[in-house]
Amino acid sequence: MKRYLDTQVIADLPRKLIMLTGPRQVGKTTLARQLLDVFAPAQYLNWDVPGDRAILSRQSWSPRSRLLVMDEIHKMPGWKSWLKGVVDGRWPDQALLATGSARMDTFRQGGASLAGRYFSLRLHPLSVREWCEQQGASPAAALDRLLQRGGFPEPCLAEDPAQAERWRQQYFTDLIREDVLEFSRLHEINTMRVFAELLRERVGSPLSLASMARELAVSPITLKRYLDILQALYIVFTVQPWHRNIARAILQQPKVYFFDTGLVRGDEGVRFENAVAAMLLKHAHYQQDALGRQVHLHTIRTKDCAEVDFVLSQDDRLTHLIECKLTDTKPHRALQRFAEQFPETLAIQLVRDLRQEEYRVRLHIRDAAGWLAELSA
């Protein structure tokens, strides 16, 4: 299956090392293997495979390979210094692609900097735009599919919902049991699992680690570390409150969402909000990684509890105010308030089931599926 980053990866590979990261089973290995034919002769090596690990450790791969793919290389001790040496000493015209399920920039090992030697690209689950482009579906049908199955390729392409649910159950179990152990100790796994389960029920709400810490009988500092781990493994992501004063924004409570909308426990409205959050983050990351633009996703709320679900900013300036609704076409009061406060910002009320779009002076009421299909990725 062709993915939205294929063309960008092919264009960037002759220039620098490509670091391709993203959630487990989001399609990184499939994308990498499809490139082997484009850059033939090419070689794929996975650090988790003993034979490949030996080749990587000895750096004995074929010098004739036009492309060398190094999967899960961040698991190698001292991988940064090792990879810097590989980049600096690579054979002429040999492209390098490193992939990993965990964010490589979160590993705090020492070693030489890779600054200036690589491009970072983040592969996200399927979105309305990508499903429409790949499957020829309408935006409405694409959104229906993604809300039912989530955006990961295997469950989304599964023949029936039961197969998708079997995949998801195993996926979540493996994430906690295997991947989390890279970051934490064995005796913490049960607490981490309960924490992750609780987060599934708190999607879209301000996240209070202090109250959750009391519930789990651990310290808030411990839960903050657990949350960092879940983010590093691309299981969840947080949306921070927007404020020009970054310090003040950090002090406010973020909202948490899952990369896999299928993991959300909540009503249809909560699942819809999570799906929109995931697609907005994908749009922002594509703008950053592929186009070099400073686009970021936030939420916005005031002390008197006026809140809009999401805002997009570029170069520290608000560009979009976005509120999610299932059926309510009445203009959201807080959205109107912020639209007046930031007159140069486009205010959009996304409605899941909408008969007629409306374009008011400062506020657009848009069909959610159609608008999401217009995002950049």
Describe the structure.
With 377 residues, this protein is of the alpha/beta class. The chain folds into two domains: 6-122, P-loop containing nucleotide triphosphate hydrolases (Rossmann fold), CATH 3.40.50.300; 128-372, no CATH class. Helix content is 42%, strand content 19%. The chain is built from 15 helices and 13 strands. A six-stranded mixed beta sheet has the order 8-9-10-11-13-12, with helices on both faces. β3 (67-71), α4 (79-88) and β4 (95-100) form a beta-alpha-beta unit. α5 (128-135) crosses α6 (139-149). It is globular. The two termini are 16 Å apart. The model is unreliable at 107-111 (pLDDT under 50).
Defining key terms:
five-stranded parallel β-sheet; alpha/beta; 377 residues; 2 domains; 15 helices; single chain; 42% helix; six-stranded mixed β-sheet; Rossmann fold
